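stage 2 :: seqdesign
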């Protein structure tokens, strides 16, 4: 299985190369990616950060032979910590990502965005875009505290399913996909945040731990929570 990661933060890209040496790590801006360059990848992670979505997929037992894209699109245009310029913000990169999706048509899409009024409006807009392309879209607002993390950190987790393309793919294969075993998580989220972050810094990925590592960890998704969402989605989709 070939995995693709995209993140234009140099430190994060180097981290990903060490964590996933067999994957292809692309440090270009998403605006520079051509659709044909994504052909052949079973998993593609955009705005990948430190690879939390890949870990979440493995924790949930996502089948290796089932194509999926993930994207944690920039939250600053919609976050309470930002200026909330919304779609007028130059960091609103959904239109760029949408075009890649339209051209490559992955069977499944997964992502997350900040909760709140602006995030829900964002979800409404991307849902309309995807539904025009024959994707069904669902979402849930989940908090990190749901998996034992010592902070609430609510996020919108969303998933999209191309019923037409997936059904055709299943028929061409003559069989259904099968969920694989779940992967053990390297860090327990039932312990204090400071202790969990300390263990995260100590993971053997060959990258030194300084300010960049702390920032990357704080900006990451919570993989156990994402894994619960992925697992629920797999149940609904019959995977």
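stage 2 :: out
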């Amino acid at each position: 299985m070939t995995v693709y990661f995209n993140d234009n933060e140099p430190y994060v890209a180097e981290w990903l190369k060490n964590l996933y040496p067999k994957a292809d790590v692309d440090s270009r801006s998403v605006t520079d990616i051509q659709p044909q360059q994504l052909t052949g990848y079973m998993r593609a992670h955009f705005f990948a950060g430190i690879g939390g979505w890949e870990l979440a997929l493995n924790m949930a037992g996502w089948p290796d032979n089932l194509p999926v894209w993930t994207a944690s699109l920039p939250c600053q245009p919609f976050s309470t910590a930002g200026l909330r310029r919304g779609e007028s913000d130059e960091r609103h990169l959904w239109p760029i990502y949408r075009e890649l999706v339209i051209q490559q048509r992955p069977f499944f899409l997964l992502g997350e965005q900040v909760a709140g009024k602006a995030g829900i409006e964002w979800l409404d807009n991307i849902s309309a875009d995807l539904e025009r392309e024959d994707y069904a879209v669902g979402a849930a607002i989940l908090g990190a505290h749901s998996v034992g993390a010592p902070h609430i950190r609510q996020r919108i987790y969303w998933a999209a399913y191309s019923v037409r393309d997936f059904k055709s793919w299943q028929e061409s294969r003559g069989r259904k996909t099968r969920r694989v075993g779940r992967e053990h998580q390297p860090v327990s989220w039932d312990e204090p945040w400071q202790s969990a972050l300390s263990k995260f810094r100590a993971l053997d990925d060959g990258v030194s731990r300084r300010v960049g590592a702390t920032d990357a960890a704080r900006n990451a998704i919570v993989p156990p929570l994402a894994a619960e969402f992925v697992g629920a989605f797999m149940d609904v989709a019959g995977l």
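stage 3 :: structure notes
- Confidence is low (pLDDT under 50) at residues 184-218.
- The chain has one domain: 3-237.
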